[in-house]
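Re: [ENG-882] Designed sequences occasionally contain unexpected residues at chain ends

Forwarding the minimal case from QA. Structure tokens:
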């Protein structure tokens, strides 16, 4: 739920915008439109551009040291997660300028996509609490804001051409999913959910309700509190994946009989070598441990 926090209650601010130029289609054109909308509403945007993975975290960390009240991630969900990694534990809030392929988090918190309305939301600076998850795998630990997946969807993300993603956007995921039907090693995945053993064809550990854009996956997820909803897909094989895809496009995933949910605080995937994705970016391979972040962050969201 929204809290009473605001980043700048008295005037339009200087906004530090971290731009990932590789996220999404029509990225540069939409950024220019948004910069114009912010300027028209008396804000002063300052764009800092990334050149490689990890840059957004480093740039955001520098902004926090400079005393920035807010850092805006101009990119996709992965860019927002990189910025969140840097602002955790600080008073700096995360703003989102959705330029990615799916922009799941922006949809989750109800951000408007029309440039003038989005600019007004960012300028007002109303914030809400968001409690991230923390994924540890392959010797690295990173925050995720919306979801972490193991199984077919993670395999698709890990094998997706970034050039194709940049060119085709969400369509690239669909095409790679069809290709992955031929090269994905379908087999059950063992998990420990709060110490209890489970097996699934694929698992999505979610902080929010939405998945892959505007589609509902976990209706009871609450991103403002610690904890996760674990979506366990029970059927494996090509026919099951095609069925899941059809249900996704019809926004009927929660109605699948083969889909079950478990509320959890800790998830372990002990088997080695399985692809992992977090907020739509590849995150190496299992073993994987997912826990709650030590503290929440604040995200700029539409005010009440």
């Amino acid at each position: 739920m929204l809290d009473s926090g605001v980043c700048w209650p008295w005037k339009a601010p200087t906004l530090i915008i971290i731009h990932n130029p590789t996220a999404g289609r029509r990225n540069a054109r939409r950024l220019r439109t948004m910069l114009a909308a912010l300027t028209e509403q008396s804000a002063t945007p300052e764009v800092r551009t990334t050149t490689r993975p990890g840059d957004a975290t480093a740039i955001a960390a520098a902004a926090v040291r400079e005393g920035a009240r807010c850092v805006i991630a101009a990119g996709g969900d992965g860019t927002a997660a990189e910025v969140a990694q840097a602002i955790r534990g600080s008073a700096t809030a995360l703003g989102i300028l959705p330029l990615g392929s799916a922009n799941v988090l922006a949809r989750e918190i109800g951000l408007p996509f029309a440039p003038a309305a989005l600019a007004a939301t960012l300028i007002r600076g109303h914030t809400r609490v968001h409690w991230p998850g923390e994924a540890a795998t392959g010797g690295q630990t990173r925050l995720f804001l919306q979801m972490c997946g193991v199984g077919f969807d993670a395999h698709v993300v890990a094998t997706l051409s970034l050039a194709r993603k940049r060119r085709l956007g969400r369509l690239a995921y669909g095409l790679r999913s069809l290709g992955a039907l031929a090269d994905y090693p379908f087999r059950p995945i063992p998990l420990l959910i709060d110490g209890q053993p489970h097996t699934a064809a694929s698992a999505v550990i979610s902080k929010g309700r939405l998945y892959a854009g505007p589609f509902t996956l976990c209706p009871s997820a609450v991103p403002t509190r610690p904890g996760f909803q674990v979506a366990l897909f029970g059927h494996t094989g090509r026919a099951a994946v095609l069925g899941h895809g059809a249900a996704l496009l019809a926004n009927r995933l929660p109605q699948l009989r083969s889909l079950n949910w478990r509320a959890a605080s800790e998830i372990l995937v002990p088997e080695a070598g399985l692809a992992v994705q977090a907020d739509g970016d590849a995150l190496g391979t299992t073993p994987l441990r997912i826990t709650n972040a030590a503290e929440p962050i604040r995200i700029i969201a539409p005010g009440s």
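QA comment: On inspection the terminal residues look reasonable. The first helix runs from residue 27 to 40. Proposing we downgrade this to a documentation issue.
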